[in-house]
What we know:
Blueprint lengths: L24 E7 L3 E8 L4 E8 L8 H15 L8 E8 L8 H13 L6 E5 H9 L5 E6 L3 E7 L2 E7 L11 H16 L8 H10 L17 H11 L10 H9 L3 H19 L10 E4 L1 H4 L3 H13 L5 E3 L3 H12 L4 H13 L3
Parallel strand pairs: 1-4, 4-5, 6-9, 9-10
Antiparallel strand pairs: 1-2, 2-3, 6-7, 7-8
Helix pairs in contact: 1-2, 3-11, 4-5, 4-7, 4-8, 7-8, 8-10, 11-12
Amino acid sequence: xxxxxxxxxxxxxxxxxxxxxxxxxxxxxxxGGTATRALLCDxxxxxxxxxxxxxxxxxxxxxxxxxxxxxxxxxxxxxxVDPRRVGHGVVGLAGRRLLxxxxxRAALRRVWQEAGLDCPMTVxxxxxxxxxxxxxxxxxxxxxxxxxxxxVRMDRxxxxxRSDGLGWLLGDLGSGFWLGREAVRVTLEALAGxxxxxxxxxxxxxxxxxxxxxxxxxxxxPDPGGALADRLVAAVYGGRPVELARLAPLxxxxxxxxxxxxxxxxxxxxxxxxxxxAAVRRPGExxxxxxxxxxxxxxxxxxxxVVRGIGRQWPGAQVCRALDGAAGAAxxxxxxxxxxxxxxxxxxxxxxxxxx
Length: 356
């Protein structure tokens, strides 16, 4: 197999890199907006170092703060190992346009060098690392629903087609943000007496205003003067739009408690995500589907609906879960060193089966 991707200096895909003498380890990083995870392992899939730090994605944080989080994760994973043993590193990073920024490219190079690393570094979209975390097949599809939502088709480890991933303003249908926004919308409808959300509305009011008991109970009576609705709207507009994603677990929790309004939001989200996936898959295709992101992996009703929908639309396709993006990035780093398919598959099985 041949892993392709994007390096900090944009250019053509790199060929497999020969391993240096003594370079028997690879490094994988999953750089997200809320957490940065680094994993160091050997080519058999044994872990040699692991660390977690704060959000390191420059799309969500100032470049210096993102670089600091990346540095903490790197140094933690390398704490007990000579960095010269690392033959290749792969960084999974959301935000395809980030690498066009000179400050981001410079920060990545600086952090890499300050950690004592002189091996090649490849930066790939987070969806590519997520696919590798769920499947060693190299070709298939990955569907992500976390803060945002996207589906990507993979062919021999290369991203060949994508759907959605347009951000909260233009897309991300079925994402955590989308669920949170719908939760607020339904709560406002309940306060106006036009919807019944006896479980969801109080949860949203408590989360955003501190306590639902400050005003009328939307499950029992409307908000005739609109005071509570005004406070809710002010709270939403007073924060960053993406922060609505933190309400997503409230929607699924309310749906599990038979709140019909919440269940309707979850069903609509599943429909959006399946449509996003269908845009990158052929009808009846049997290649693996990898699910990633907190909204799909939390064990709630949204994930179950999506898995059932995949079974109906693509019977026989294996559904995998991407639980460790850093491990997926490490697999891609090993592939960049030219591992044969059987060895890479064995590494994947050990690495992904081994608990943290």
